[in-house]
Specification:
Number of helices: 17
Radius of gyration: 22 Å
Structural class: mainly alpha
Largest sheet: 5 strands, antiparallel
Distance between the termini: 40 Å
Number of strands: 7
Shape: globular
């Protein structure tokens, strides 16, 4: 990526899917003992001993993986700050160039999986700057480290065995294969388990090479998104104009009305036309009623299957619309975002009132937003789910 403060991958480890199975090996302890248990498990799964020995021969713990895992502060940024940071003129220009250059490939993916090229280009850009920054962590060591660490072994141990299967197919080198710190590989950063399930030989060379083949990487991403629930040839996000007297309690990603109902309530498209009248959609106010406003369609939820960060998902979805001709959003005049200290204090007070906000991490995610909106209703404040100093003080 072109922003050194951002991790090499935007897909953070706490948000990964569980993979093909649950953890079966006790985490922690001396590494040789842990490796021995992993090898035993691999043999019980039916893998050949010589293959298992070769696969695990050079496995090591990587302290830099743990360090990266603990540093995810970028997701505490506001939508406006984050989106402006990651959606650069360079990325827009490159996206448009690749859309033209790979037109036939994108047409093929759209026909087969119904995933728009803007969506694929957005992920390609945000994950690896169109393949330029794919990460230089040894993938096996990253997966071993996170499997050995006792925070989330059930997420990563299955990925080790998926990598072993790729090794048997000739599509993974335990010594030379590199990628992101959380074990993702290639231009669109997919985990070994996802590659096994969704990898596509897009260029017809007999292998799935997500690091070097654009056709393999983009086609695999299209298949994965379709498998995650993407509805072919439907919209995902659209900027809107909302009336000042809108019932803010109806807004939020966890609530939806039909497009026809939103129209009756005064919601209008900023450009173009809204989706089909009977399609369900949510009014999304990433920075409250005074900031940008979007209509989120069913496909928007699929972005959360790729990454659970609200600010990342909204930025990626918006970026995809920009790549397909949408204008720069109207930023409006939202109230300032709470500081990290204030946000943690807010989450602590919300938790004391019985709300589930997840970890006290200072990140304004879906759970915290939902709790904020409920407290705004209780206190008679505009319930737009955007936390303010006034709300914090009143709590």
């Amino acid at each position: 990526m072109r922003f050194p403060a951002i991790l090499p991958t935007m897909l953070i480890a706490t948000l990964l899917t569980a993979g093909p199975a649950l953890a079966t090996v006790t985490c922690g302890g001396p590494l040789p003992d842990f490796i021995a248990k992993m090898k035993k498990e691999a043999l019980e799964k039916g893998h050949r001993k010589d293959t298992v020995d070769a696969f695990f021969a050079n496995a090591r713990l990587d302290a830099n993986v743990i360090k990266a895992d603990r540093q995810q502060g970028i997701f505490r940024m506001s939508f406006i700050d984050f989106s402006r940071r990651v959606i650069s003129r360079y990325r827009l220009d490159q996206g448009h160039r690749y859309a033209r250059e790979l037109d036939s490939l994108f047409d093929s993916i759209e026909r087969k999986y119904g995933v728009s090229r803007g969506v694929l280009l957005a992920f390609w850009a945000l994950e690896t700057d169109f393949g330029q920054v794919q990460g230089d962590f040894n993938t096996l060591n990253a997966l071993i480290t996170l499997s050995h660490d006792c925070r989330r072994p059930s997420l990563f141990q299955p990925q080790v065995f998926a990598a072993l299967e790729l090794f048997e197919r000739g599509d993974f080198d335990p010594v030379r294969s590199t990628g992101a710190w959380a074990g993702e590989i290639g231009m669109v950063q997919m985990l070994p388990g996802d590659i096994l399930e969704n990898g596509v030989d897009g260029d017809g060379d007999g292998h799935v090479r997500l690091k070097t083949s654009r056709a393999d990487a983009l086609t695999s991403a299209g298949r994965m998104l379709r498998g995650l629930g993407w509805r072919p040839n439907e919209p995902w996000l659209q900027e809107i104009i909302v009336p000042a007297d809108l019932d803010w309690t109806r807004t939020g990603i966890d609530k939806s009305l039909s497009v026809a109902q939103w129209t009756k309530l005064g919601v209008k498209p900023r450009t173009g036309t809204l989706g089909p009248a009977n399609m369900k959609a949510s009014v999304l106010l990433p920075m409250g009623r005074k900031g940008p406003a979007f209509l989120a369609y069913p496909n928007f939820h699929v972005f959360f299957e790729w990454n659970k960060s609200f600010v990342y998902v909204t930025s990626a979805a918006y970026f995809a619309t920009r790549l397909e001709g949408a204008p720069v959003y109207k930023a409006g005049t939202p109230e300032p975002m709470l500081s990290l200290k204030q946000m943690k204090a807010l989450q602590t007070r919300l938790r004391k009132r019985g709300h589930n906000v997840g970890p006290i991490d200072g990140i304004l995610g879906k759970l915290t937003r939902a709790a904020v909106q409920k407290e705004q209703v209780r206190l008679g404040m505009p319930a737009d789910a955007w936390p303010t100093v006034e709300l914090l003080n009143r709590l």
